[in-house]
Design goal:
The complex is a heterotrimer.
Chain A (H helix, E strand, L loop, with lengths): L16 E3 L4 H11 L3 E4 L5 H6 L7 E4 L8 E3 L3 E5 L4 H6 L8 H7 L5 H4 L4 H6 L7 H7 L3 E6 L2 E6 H4 E3 L2 E2 L6 E8 L5 E8 L10 E8 L4 E6 L6 E2 L1 H10 L4 H11 L10 H25 L3
Parallel strand pairs in A: 1-3, 2-3
Antiparallel strand pairs in A: 4-5, 5-10, 6-7, 6-10, 8-9, 11-12, 12-13, 13-14
Helix pairs in contact in A: 9-10, 10-11
Chain B lengths: L3 E7 L2 E7 L5 H8 L18 E4 L2 E4 L12 E3 L12 H8 L9 H14 L7 H8 L10 H15 L3 H5 L1
Parallel strand pairs in B: 1-5
Antiparallel strand pairs in B: 1-2, 3-4, 3-5
Chain C lengths: L17 H5 L15 E7 L5 E7 L1 H4 L4 E6 L7 E2 L6 E2 L5 E2 L5 E7 L2 H10 L1 E6 L6 H4 L26 E9 L2 H6 L3 E9 L11 E6 L5 E5 L4 H12 L6 E5 L15 H11 L3 E4 L2 H6 L7 E9 L5 E13 L5 H13 L6 E10 L13 H19 L3 H8 L18 H12 L7 E2 L3 E12 L6 E7 L5 E5 L8 H13 L6 E3 L2 E2 L14 H28 L7 E3 L2 E4 L2 E4 H12 L2 E7 L11 E2 L10 E12 L5 E11 L6 H21 L4 E2 L2 E2 L18 E6 L21 H13 L10 H12 L1
Parallel strand pairs in C: 1-14, 12-13, 16-17, 21-22, 30-33
Antiparallel strand pairs in C: 1-7, 2-6, 2-8, 3-7, 4-5, 9-17, 9-28, 10-15, 11-12, 11-14, 13-23, 15-16, 18-19, 19-29, 20-21, 20-27, 24-25, 25-26, 29-30, 31-32
The chains are: A alpha+beta, B alpha+beta, C alpha+beta.
């Protein structure tokens, strides 16, 4: 008799080989060679589950670990978050505690602490889940993604990068290396709100991010309300023109603009109600922070 | 598929293994090494019973490939205290009645350890403990005595020098 | 009750199995393995009701590493079940729910077993299915079991078609009662499927020996029931089946019955190798023993001053495809419809119904939360309508000492009034509708209940060792509650030793004395009493041993301070145990206990397996919560439980039972539900089956009331089940107090509240 447990680590139908390329270019070249048979591995907190559930069956996993993508770089006018930066690192970054606090707020509610220590910003974006928590914040910040491919790096607005659930503009061999956004002016604020059935460990039923710049732009982005994370330009313009007086109306416009689904987590009707409420609250929170100088 | 050689450092000891690339760290710990203190349940990072420390940070070993732990330091519950020399968290969990069936407890204790270690001795509030440990489900206790135990252990560890706390 | 100061019982001592659990050394069934072990995997139906027209395992069997594949044709056609023998090991020609086992594979690795399951070829011919209880009762509804009439069943059951059991209780004159009422209220409530949510999946490892005996290591709560059930399924004398429980990661009533043990045993028998099976989360949420959904209708009549006069109630309970404990649970719902209230005229009926969904079981306080949600919600509705404070309304109607329960049995040791008053005081009941609170609405609610301490017999062997330690061998499993620590505290008290001197063994049905099992809030109560009996017997043995030596009457010998004392004579317990080993084979006793069954009036009861309750407990929950005015999100500010525990054997673990039970109750109230669409579970994973996290739980303030029971050890009452009964009702009442919205379907999600308030605002 021995104490030697079995494991049910749900095995894939077909195993894969694991690759640790020595450079980004080697990773890209290998991915190009393997085509659909290869997947990049960031934290793996989603990909491994998908493999175990039998939804994807890559023959090669290409690890992006150790390729220098795990830094948050602060330049004079912008931040660049490397794709392999974990949510935990975003939560604790000193630059994301004031007028970029929505980043920390969103990363703080991705799974449990154990997931946040592994799951990455790049993975959250590339997965293109409409419920990804960090994506509305990045959209609200007008973020740009850097994609490195066979012919060097190209950049595009995150808003263009996202196509629909599970689909982006990324070519199979391209690596999302970083997401960048401008440092916001001092008199500005961001806020993130999420609704789920529980107070932790939730996939968003709705999540909302907003950014307000005093006398400047307004941004509103919403997750889990359509086939991809969306911005609501009509509501943004209204808020830019009318300020706080338009916060409630902005929520209504946002609720009309989104096209949520009915699923086991919530009805479309309730999701619209949440969009209206959370958009207004996020804007109020931003305005309050600017007002109080907390931004 | 062919197995690959993998050296893992677990509780300070080096283990030379041959692993299938798809094996999770949990699988390697439990089946290959017979280290069953790390528990298994949902296998999808929803319940937290499989939590181990990777370079000091709590992670779900069920969805972490063993390969991803290459070159890193792993701590499991077997690497904390032993029955004669319990870690303050282990002692506090018993003292405060925080253990019932006990199946979530190794993961809960390790998550608490990483949380307290990162705070460098600052005693957390109840709300902070609840936030930090919410990734592990316990169905027996309603969590209250777990929260109490973590705070009590933090108070005790707070009186230690930094090096001792990390040990 | 004696009033002497106790040294061990009643103290907040550390549990005896704590160190193993915090160091990862405690071995659970899922940690257990045997050399040469194969891994088992089950092929499950993808149809809810269908004829299997083709099953071809040849490709699967050809996979390297596959040792055995079994389906219905390979084993005797034996039907098993707790109340009704209606369930096959493998679906034979018909599947009755999506997720039902059709075949099982044993292979050298789990990967191979899973590949083999995928390689089995199967074809179905769909049959008309029924998913809704009320539909299932309509004439012409598809029958879940065409051959229901041929099944063996407990004689007490009244069965027909899709009805697996029907019970009723009646007293007074219901028509006359309603005729004299000032007002009569009729409401309908529905409750949902919830999973026990134990963190250790159900696990079994089976191995056959050279004598044709099978050993099964598993995490069952009822090893002796499991042994008998497996003997039936394996077509063996029970003496050839051995069940061992190494350790168990939670049960909550979900691990009472055969889960994967029978598959493991059959696979091991045919493959001639040990076989291990562990369930997945998906299997847990599609083929386990969750709490049954119910539809409850109540018609209650009252006088103008809020005295209950008459109540009619009907419970429909959805067993799923197999009856299991459904009929008994439905019957227990009748006592829940009565509640802890005097009701002169009543007529209660319950019907357990088959549908083409997964089977169900006896999750902690079976029928408790469902019946309580209906009754206690309606009490608030009535009180509000009459303009009477809900607490006052309850106080006017609750049982007093010596009242008759619904079966005409006498209700004793009644503490319901005290629990109501103390919970209400603690929550600040005088200010129960604090109102708007910055975008939220705040309100308080309470709900009270009664429950039983389940009977069934317990035996323990107690051995005093020559080193002065004491070994207790029980057939009861420590499922986490601390019940065996409690029983050990009682034993230590009786033997004059410390808790640290007591060792408790694991359960092995070949070695352990019988126990009815870790269920029904009975373990500490019943095993504790058996320990008292064993200690008495040991005192007698010791008296007879040392009496002649000391020339004293054996009855004068006392056990205290780890010693044996009479007058000036003293020997240590260790010395006496050594003496007994040298001269008389050692000190060992067999203590037993069974709770006496109360008398009741059989004319009030039909088809009820448990008509009269024993060692009642009484309890009240009170909650203070806030509801987001727009999103409907509920935040619990404070939660108070005042529970009569009779005697608090170990207050720490009693609080643990209350805090944990409240967590499960809050899950049922607000977030948990196994969601079926047709016959398919939409959320068969822990991402979308929403058990409360640490962030969802408030602190629970426990008030332990100690009104001694007649039969419990030192007056103790059953503790474990009650705490999960009242949260849904207390929370529903608080939400209504806060918002004016009354939700009568569980769970009370934020969405339901928000949309209902929207409607109210229209």
């Amino acid at each position: 008799m021995s104490l030697n447990a079995s494991s049910r680590s749900a095995p894939p139908a077909m195993s894969f080989s694991f690759h640790r390329p020595g450079s980004l270019d080697a990773a890209i070249a290998f991915a190009r060679e393997q085509g659909d048979a290869a997947r990049f591995l960031a934290g793996g907190t989603d990909l491994i589950i998908q493999i175990n559930r039998g939804r994807v069956a890559p023959r090669h996993l290409i690890s992006l670990d150790g390729l220098g993508l795990d830094r948050i770089d602060e330049a004079a006018t912008e931040y660049a978050i490397g794709a392999m930066v974990t949510h935990d690192a975003v939560v604790n970054h000193p630059g994301f505690q004031t007028n970029l606090v929505a980043l920390a707020q969103a990363s703080a509610v991705v799974g449990g602490r154990q997931v946040r220590n592994i799951a990455t910003v790049g993975g959250n974006i590339v997965n293109a889940s409409p419920a990804a928590d960090l994506v509305p914040v990045l959209l609200a910040l007008d973020a740009t993604v850097d994609l490195r491919g066979l012919n060097g790096t190209r950049s595009m607005p995150l808003d263009r990068f996202l196509v629909e659930r599970g689909r982006t503009e990324r070519r199979p061999e391209e690596i999302l290396t970083a997401v960048r956004f401008d440092k916001p002016p001092a008199a500005s604020a961001t806020w993130f709100l999420k609704a789920g059935r529980r107070k932790a460990m939730e996939i968003s039923v709705i999540c909302v991010a907003a950014q307000l710049v005093r006398g400047g732009k307004a941004r509103i982005a919403i997750g889990a309300a359509a086939s991809r994370t969306v911005r609501v330009p009509d509501a943004e313009v209204l808020v830019e023109r009318q300020g706080a007086a338009a916060f409630r109306e902005a929520g209504r416009i946002a609720a009309d603009a989104v096209a949520p689904i009915d699923d086991v987590r919530a009805s479309a009707r309730y999701r619209k109600l949440l969009v209206a409420a959370l958009v207004e609250r996020a804007l109020v929170a931003c305005a309050g922070r600017i007002e109080r100088g907390e931004a | 598929m062919t197995r690959q050689a993998l050296d893992l450092t677990i509780n300070g000891e080096s283990h030379q293994l041959m692993v299938e690339p798809h094996w999770s760290l949990l699988h390697v710990l439990r089946r290959e090494l017979g280290m069953t203190g790390t528990k298994e349940n949902c296998l999808e990072a929803e319940c937290g019973v499989c939590t181990v420390l990777l370079d000091g940070k709590a992670v779900n070993s069920c969805i972490l490939l063993a390969e991803q732990a290459r070159g890193r330091s792993i701590v499991t519950i077997e690497g904390l205290g032993d029955p004669e020399h319990l870690h303050p968290l282990q002692a506090a969990f018993i003292e405060h009645g925080a253990v019932q069936c006990g199946y979530c407890i190794p993961g809960m204790i390790l998550t608490a350890k990483s949380f307290l270690d990162e705070r460098h001795g600052r005693v957390p509030s109840e709300a902070e403990v609840r936030e930090a440990l919410s990734g592990t489900l316990c169905r027996c206790t309603g969590y209250q005595k777990i929260v109490d135990a973590v705070i009590a252990a933090a108070r005790q560890m707070n009186s230690w020098p930094e090096a001792a706390r990390k040990a | 009750m004696s009033t002497y100061e106790r040294r061990v019982a009643g103290k907040r001592l550390k549990r005896i199995d704590g160190i193993g659990k915090v160091t990862g050394k405690h071995v659970y069934a899922s940690d257990f393995a045997l050399p040469g072990m194969l891994f088992g995997k089950i092929l499950r139906s993808t149809e809810a009701h269908a004829r299997i027209v083709r099953l071809d395992v040849s490709k699967a069997l050809a996979l390297p590493g596959v040792r055995t594949i079994l389906s219905a044709q390979d084993i005797p056609q034996i039907l098993f079940g707790t109340a009704v023998k209606d369930r096959p090991v493998f679906a034979a020609d018909v599947v009755r729910f999506r997720g039902e086992a059709i075949a099982a594979v044993a292979a050298t690795s789990l990967e191979i077993a899973e590949a083999a399951v995928r390689a089995i070829e199967i074809a179905y011919e769909p049959l008309p299915a029924v998913f809704d209880m009320e539909e299932a009762l309509k004439p012409g509804a598809p029958l879940v079991h065409g051959a229901w009439g041929d099944y063996q069943a407990l004689p007490v059951l009244d069965r027909e078609g899709n009805i697996s059991g029907r019970s009723s209780m009646a007293g007074g004159d219901i028509e006359a009662g309603f005729a004299e009422c000032y007002r009569v209220y009729e409401h309908r409530f529905t409750t949902q499927h919830v999973h026990p949510g134990y963190t250790e999946p159900r696990t079994a490892i089976a191995s056959w020996d050279g004598n044709g005996d099978v050993s099964v290591w598993c995490n069952t709560q009822l090893p002796f029931d499991m042994k008998n059930m497996l003997a039936e399924v394996l077509d063996l004398p029970a003496s050839k089946v051995r069940v061992v429980v190494p350790g168990i990661g939670g049960g909550f009533g979900g691990k009472l019955r055969v889960g994967v043990e029978h598959f493991a045993a059959w696979l091991a028998r045919r493959s001639k190798r040990p076989v291990k099976i562990v369930t997945t989360s998906e299997e847990e949420l599609t083929d386990a023993y969750p709490r049954q959904p119910t539809v409850i209708t109540l018609r209650t009549g009252v006088s103008k001053d809020g005295i209950l006069i008459a109540r009619e109630g009907r419970v429909l309970l959805d067993c799923g495809a197999y009856a299991n404990s459904g009929p008994a649970t439905a019957a227990l719902a009748l006592q829940m419809l009565a509640g802890p209230y005097r009701t002169p005229h009543f007529s209660y009926e319950s019907v357990a119904v088959y549908t083409n969904k997964g089977s169900t079981g006896s999750f902690r306080a079976p029928a408790g939360p469902m019946g309580n949600f209906a009754v206690e919600s309606q009490i608030d509705l009535i009180a509000d309508d009459l303009g009477i404070d809900p607490l006052e309304f309850r106080l006017r109607n609750v049982y007093r000492e010596g009242d008759k329960g619904p079966a005409g049995d006498t209700v004793s040791s009644v503490s319901i009034e005290e629990s109501l008053r103390r919970a209400a005081d603690a929550i600040g009941w005088k200010d129960r509708k604090p109102g708007p609170d910055g975008g939220k609405s705040r309100g308080k609610g309470l709900a009270c209940s009664w429950w039983l301490t389940t009977g069934g017999s317990s035996g323990v062997y107690v051995k005093i060792n020559p080193d002065g330690t004491v070994t207790v061998v029980s057939g009861a499993v420590e499922i986490g509650t601390g019940a065996m620590t409690g029983a050990a505290q009682i034993l230590a008290e009786e033997l004059g030793v410390d808790l640290g001197d007591i060792n408790a063994t694991d359960v092995d049905t070949h070695l352990s004395p019988y126990d009815y099992g870790a269920q029904g809030s009975r373990t500490a109560f019943s095993v504790g009493n058996a320990c008292i009996a064993a200690a008495q017997d040991l005192r007698r043995q010791i008296g007879e041993l040392v009496g002649p030596l000391w020339n004293v009457a054996p009855e004068s010998v006392r056990l205290e301070g780890k010693g044996v004392v009479s007058g000036n004579n003293r020997l240590s317990l260790a010395e006496v145990a050594a003496l007994s080993q040298r001269t008389g084979g050692g000190l060992i006793s067999h203590g037993t206990f069974i709770q006496p069954m109360p008398t009741f009036d059989p004319t009030r009861v039909r088809n009820h397996p448990l008509p009269a309750w024993t060692s009642h407990s009484f309890h009240t929950h009170a909650v203070d919560l806030s509801v987001d005015d727009v999103t409907g999100e509920v935040s619990i500010n404070r939660y108070v439980v005042a529970q009569d525990v009779g005697f608090a054997i170990n207050p720490t673990y009693i609080e643990g039972q209350i805090e944990g039970g409240v967590a499960q109750g809050i899950g049922q109230a607000l977030s948990e539900e196994i969601v079926y669409e047709g016959g398919r579970v939409l959320n068969a994973n822990l991402t979308d089956y929403k058990m409360p996290t640490m962030m969802d739980m408030p602190r629970v303030e426990c008030i332990l009331i100690e009104k001694p029971s007649v039969n419990g050890p030192y007056g103790a009452k059953g503790v474990g089940e009650p705490p999960c009964i009242q949260p849904p009702a207390a929370i529903a009442n608080a939400i209504a107090a806060a918002t004016g919205v009354r939700i009568q379907t569980l769970p009370i999600t934020a969405e339901k509240i928000a949309l209902a308030r929207l409607k109210d605002g229209d």
